[in-house]
Amino acid sequence: MQYRIYGKNLGFKVSALGMGCMRLPQIVDEVNGRAEVDKDKAFELIRYAVDHGVNYFDTAYGYHAKASEAVLGEALETFQCRDKVKIVTKQPFGVMSDLSSGGGKTIKDNARRNLENTLAKLRTSYLDVYLIHAIGKSSWGDTKQEKIIEAYEQFRAEGLIRGIGFSYHGDFDCFKDVLSYYSWDMCQIQQNFIDVERETTVQGIRLAGEKGVALVIMEPLRGGLLATPPAPIKALYEEYERETGAPQRSAVEWAFRHLLNYPEVSVILSGTTTLAQLAEDIEIFSKPESVPGCLTDGESELLSRVKTKYESLKAIPCTGCQYCMPCAQGVEIPGVFARYNDGMMFGNFDQPRRSYMFTTRAGRDASKCVACGACEKKCPQGINIIDKLKTAHEKLKGWIE
Ligand code: SF4
Ligand code: SF4
Fold first, then answer.
1. By CB atoms within 10 Å of each CB, which of 76, 279, 310, 322 scores lowest?
2. Ligand 1: which residue has its CA nearest to atom 4?
3. Are 393 and 366 in contact (CB under 8 A)?
4. Is the dihedral of CA 91, 96, 101, 102 positive or negative?
5. Which residues of the chain have pLDDT under 70?
6. Is 337 found in the same domain as 290?
7. At what angle do helices 251-260 and 275-285 cross, to 10 degrees?
8. Which helix (DSSP H) or strand (DSSP E) does residue 34 occupy?
9. Residue 47 and residue 79: Cα distance in Å, rounded?
């Protein structure tokens, strides 16, 4: 296993592979369609990870309908390895600020109550790093105004947490603002070779490195979608290997290799569901060549070609420009199209449908469209938004968990 330095503040040395606990194996109830964590299989995965050198575990208050922290905590206690690993978890501003939940009179009281519950579930007296979950443009203002960082500093002063960080979804400008606001110990961002021009972009990776903030990557395989490429993508990998004599690599290895190449990256999280996936990840992260600088110019060009080919498989030419927004009915138009395009690009709708379930729960799915037509007048791509929303909804609806 490769190990890397975890930023400049905490002095941690961590496995470059982190186990993400949001896609643990599940058992689905055939009657009501509800899924719950398959504890035996999850324990097996956690045990295997620890035994093979993984010392970084990432979970969150809300993962697996709030069950992930408890499963991880019980497993680490059972295997008596709490002190050998780093536990990182998170709570979102929306949960802290829900004062109807009975956690106290203020947002800071709520945050404390949630942390205490989390520590109990994880069966530990401290967290290695505690994150504010999923900061983005809409929640960053509230996070600052309610002085959430002050609350976290108090937790640290009491020895309940060791490091303070945040996970982030949004663009580079807001990320820069968040990163510059405080001396964070770590930040967690979405990156993979498909997203190099999206989210924080590569600029985000470079900035975190310049500031010495530990950088953790989530969604390295885009929710697993990069692991099973459609035929035109497979053909590109095979052609490259044939023409250059490069060793045969799986699509998973190509995607990890892109991220392992960055010296700024401390940990790459992989949310494995099966032992076979975990074993493959561990094998890749244990290769002597899986170090910063591993990607050759030729390999970099290959991944650019693969990205372009993936993008050519999009069904709706939405650029995500947001000019059509806001929709008076709350429909998350570019988000719906992004999920539909992901399904078409990757030839797999499982992850887009799961993600659409959350959009639906938030009341922002395409079924809310009343065909007023306001968005179509503003779309520079001339997309027939009303019809395309219907097509996307039919394909994305119906995921339950
Ligand atoms: S047509 Fe539908 S999606 Fe577009 S603005 Fe009107 S309600 Fe919203
Ligand atoms: S205006 Fe058109 S291209 Fe831009 S986000 Fe909306 S649908 Fe996509």
1. 322
2. 375
3. yes
4. positive
5. none
6. no
7. 40
8. none
9. 7
Number of domains in the chain: 2
pLDDT at 22: 93
Q: What is the pLDDT of residues 162-183, one digit of tens each?
A: 999 999 998 999 999 999 999 9
| Beta-carbon count within 10 A of 187 CB | 24
Q: Indicate which residue's Cα is closest to atom 6 of ligand 1.
A: 372
Cα–ligand 1 centroid distance for 401 (angstroms): 28
Could you give the dihedral angle defined by the CA atoms of residues 145, 127, 202 and 304, in that order, rounded to the nearest 10 degrees? Answer: -140
The residues lining ligand 2, judged by C-beta closer than 6 Å to any ligand atom, are: 318-324, 333-334, 337, 378-379, 381, 383, 385
Find the residues whose C-beta lies inside 6 A of ligand 1.
Answer: 327, 329, 331, 333, 369-375, 385-386
**Alpha helices by DSSP H, 38-136:** 39-51, 63-66, 68-78, 93-96, 107-122
Domain assignment of residue 367, yes or no: yes
Q: Rounded distance, CA 177 to CA 93, Å?
A: 17
* pLDDT at site 105: 84
Task: Please tell me what DSSP assigns to residue 105.
Answer: S
Q: Are residues 298 and 345 located together in one domain of the fold?
A: no
State the pLDDT at residue 259.
97
Of the CA atoms within 13 Å of residue 39, those in its CB half-sphere come to 9
Q: How far apart are CA 61 and CA 352, in angstroms?
A: 22
**Dihedral angle over CA of 287, 196, 246, 269, nearest 10:** 20
Question: Which residue's CA is the nearest one to ligand 2's atom 8?
Answer: 318
Task: Give 351 Cα–ligand 2 centroid separation in angstroms.
Answer: 22
Contact by Cβ (8 Å): 192, 258: yes
Q: Which residue has the tokens 């569901």?
A: 273
Q: Is residue 130 part of a domain?
A: yes
Q: Which residues contact 255 (CB under 8 A, 6 or more apart)?
A: 192, 193, 220, 221, 226, 227
Using the atom order of ligand 2, give the atom closest to the CA of residue 317. 3
The answer as to whether 375 is a domain residue is yes
